[in-house]
Amino acid sequence: MKLLALLSLTTGAACAFTPNAPSVSNTNTVLRMSEAAPAVDEPVSMEPVEPEVPPVTPINGWVPDENKPCYGLPGAIAPLGFFDPLGFTKDMELLGVKRFREAEIMHGRVAMMATIGYLIGESTPTIAYGMNVHHTIANNQIPEIPGTVLFPFFLAINITEAVRASIGWVEPGLGPLFTLRESYYPGDIRFDPLGLKPSDPKEFENMQNKELSNGRLAMLAAAGMCVQEQINGKGILENLGF
User: Fold this and answer.
1) Three-state SS sequence of the chain
2) Is residue 69 within 8 Å of residue 82, measured between CB atoms?
3) What pLDDT digit, counting tens, does each position of 42-54 carry?
4) Across residues 175-189, what is the average pLDDT?
């Protein structure tokens, strides 16, 4: 019995120091991993990604286009088309072009009223001269008008100009000086009591072309009237024989 016990202890101790045989499943997994081809990294594209340009909101149907003269604003009218022989708008930024158009259309409107004022002031009864239509030429009328008449006249001009500036121009301190608002269309001061402004973009562009044509002609006419009266001292209709 003692001999059997010693044999049992010796066999157990020997089995404790014998390494385990690797399992078949582990061996197969190692072989499959070693046989797999190494992964190749795909080349990363280094092309620059262009930023998305946000869509521009049309203003009265007009979308600025830098490839067109004056960014596509109306005014390039036949027979001359786009006429800028001195290159005032060449390589000019959008805000500068809009400011030039604002000045052109506002001076055109003033000139249209001035041409009518020349004719009416010289040839019809007025506040300053009563029913006598044979009065002073228009160039000399303002100094002869009483201050009580001129004061409300110039006050009305100042008020309308302040309203126009608040609608279309950036307030001082909130941006560069003499800058129009990005959402402002040159000349559109939202004054349309008769509802003549078209809603269709094509019709609006056509009306803009007509206003610009008449305004440009009126600026030349008003300048011509002023020079003509200074030369011979006669009124416009009187000079024409009426």
Assistant:
1) CHHHHHHHHHHHHHHHCCCCCCCHHHHHHHHHHHHCCCCCCCCCCCCCCCCCCCCCCCECCECCCCCCHHHHCCCCECCCECCCCCCCCCCCCHHHHHHHHHHHHHHHHHHHHHHHHHHHHHHCCECCCECCCCCCCHHHCHHHCCHHHHHHHHHHHHHHHHHHHHHHECCCCCCCCCCECCCCCCCCCCCCCCCCCCCCHHHHHHHHHHHHHHHHHHHHHHHHHHHHHHHHCCCHHHHCCC
2) yes
3) 555 556 655 555 4
4) 90
